[in-house]
Design brief:
alpha+beta; 5-stranded antiparallel beta sheet; 3-stranded antiparallel beta sheet; 42% helix
Length: 264
Amino acid sequence: MWSNFFVQQDEDGRMGVAGGGGLGVAGGVKGVRGGPRRQKMSDSLEGKIKLAFFLSIVGVTMAVLGVGTEFWAELAQPKYLMNNQTCQVAHYGLWKGCVKTLPLDQIDLERPTCGPTELRGETNCTYFKFFTSGENAVIFKKTTNSLNLAAAILALLSLAMMAMGSICIVMSLSKGVQFFLKPASFCFALSGVLVLISVLVFHHSVLGLLDSNDSVPVTYELSWSVGCVGSAGGILMVGGLFFLLLSVPCSPWERCLPQQGSST
């Protein structure tokens, strides 16, 4: 007499066939799994990812602050160039430039040039037109060049990579998987490199601006926006390195647990 067979489902979701009857034979044949099970990240790994993401967000905030402000470079004329009771100092960034008129009685007597820009005075600010009409800006009879536009494009690309990296980390945390850590690492590291290159290109644009006209003596110095952007670039590259280490299954940041073999 044939044994009665029945299909049972084990705890792992695998389908098998087991039989029993007068012969006293009991066995099971394991079927095919429906698909590989996705392994969730541990709580400790998730905490480390959030910590690295916080570090990266600090870099993103500093980069946005630096790129959006117009204190990349300060240009100062000699104090007594205009032969009156005022002098002019300018500061500009990637998108906008300002010329400030300062009274001489506010300036330090030992300072040979006008400034600093933190002093109170009449300010006239204009946005650069090389993004729309392609017209170069003129500051103290000196003309900007295409390197300023190149620095702005690099800064925009850097911000785009920061946004993509942030999206990858949010998806990694919401899905609980490490798959998005490597793309996030690439995006944040590349954004840091791009923003540092933008600072270098901008510095060369300032030198080109000063060489465009020698009739007006002007001195320059890089301002706090450049320091903010440069620091952001370093922080973003460190954050990208952290995400790369966290993406490795057996990295020093996360202890690898032995995988349980399937029972036979």
